[in-house]
Specification:
By secondary structure, this protein is an alpha+beta fold. Helix content is 29%, strand content 16%. Strand 1 (55-63) and strand 2 form a beta hairpin. The N and C termini lie far apart (44 Å).
Length: 117
C-alpha cells in the first residue's frame, strides 16, 4: 500500500503552519461559518479598562477505524484563563442538567403523548 494519496495529517502547532495547508484553511473556514451562523458572539467596543480575552486555534485530525482521515477539525477557543475573577467577571455558569430534571421532563412528555425526537 502506498501513502502518496494520503494528505499530510500532522496537526499544526500554530496558525502559520495551519494556513500553509488547504485542508486546515477549509476547516478554519467551516468553524468561522458555524460560529457566525450560530451567532456565538456579538462585536463590542474594546474599552481601555477592560481585559479583552484573546483566542487560540486548536487543530485535530479525526481518523476512521481503518486509520484514514475522516475530517480535519479546527476550533477557535477563548483564552479564558487570562481572566481574573472579580476583575474581569463576577459569576460563572455551566449549562448542566441534573438527571432528575431529565426524568421529570420525559415523564411529562410520555403522559401528554408528546413526540420525543
Amino acid at each position: 500500500m502506498t501513502t502518496s494519496h494520503i494528505p499530510d495529517i500532522k496537526e499544526p502547532r500554530n496558525i502559520k503552519e495551519a494556513l500553509s495547508k488547504s485542508h486546515w484553511v477549509d476547516a478554519m473556514t467551516e468553524e468561522m461559518q458555524a460560529l457566525h451562523s450560530n451567532a456565538n458572539w456579538k462585536l463590542a467596543p474594546a474599552w481601555p479598562d477592560v481585559n479583552v480575552v484573546s483566542s487560540h486555534w486548536g487543530f485535530k485530525t479525526n481518523l476512521k477505524a481503518d486509520g484514514s482521515v475522516e475530517r480535519f477539525k479546527a476550533r477557535l477557543v477563548a483564552k479564558g484563563y487570562s481572566q481574573i475573577e472579580r476583575v474581569d467577571f463576577e459569576d460563572t455558569f455551566s449549562p448542566m442538567v441534573k438527571a432528575t430534571t431529565i426524568r421529570i421532563v420525559l415523564s411529562v412528555a410520555i403522559t401528554l403523548n408528546w413526540d420525543i425526537k
